[in-house]
Amino acid sequence: MVMLQENEQVLLIASQNAAAQLRKIATLLEQIRDAVSYPETGPDAAEGKIYRIHVVSVNGVEAGPDMLLPHRHYPVTIRQRRHSDGNTHTGYWSFTDRDVRDTIFRSEMRDNDSYTVRVSNLNKLYFSANTANTYFELVVEK
């Protein structure tokens, strides 16, 4: 009889511990859901930010920063910055590293030209240029 009471107590304690762990798991899952579903409310929201891309060398390739955009609904404006060094800067952008090197698949830009696209992450954009020290801006707007 004593053994039966001890087993019941062990089972009761185990079920209480399991219930507490399940509550913790549920809370963590809710936090993950909220972070994934509503990332624009967090401190690292990408809205209204400008990211600068610097193509250092001739025909060098630079990727955009690793910045996840919520729900792929923010427009991203790609703009080639105006250069005052006297050189004619021709910049290129594309959605892949390979395509930005290929004249058929890349988009060409000159100073102050801009395109607007929608991407899930800014690192999906690649940049190159025919002149060293060419600058681009990625403007994320909500």
**Which CATH-level-2 architecture of the largest domain?**
Sandwich
Structural class: alpha+beta
The CATH class of the largest domain: Mainly Beta
Helix content: 25-40%
Largest sheet geometry:
4 strands, antiparallel
Quickly count the domains.
2
Q: Largest sheet, order of strands side by side?
A: 1-8-3-6
Chain oligomer state = single chain
Number of strands: 8
List SSEs in N-to-C order.
Answer: HEEEEHEEEE
The total count of helices amounts to 2
Strand content: 25-35%
What does the radius of gyration come to?
A: 26 Å
Shape verdict: rod-shaped
Mean pLDDT: 82
**Which regions contain 5 or more consecutive residues with pLDDT less than 50?**
37-43
- What is the CA–CA distance across the termini? 69 Å
The CATH topology assignment of the largest domain is Jelly Rolls
Would you kindly provide a brief summary of this structure?
The protein has 2 helices and 8 strands; from the N terminus they run αββββαββββ.
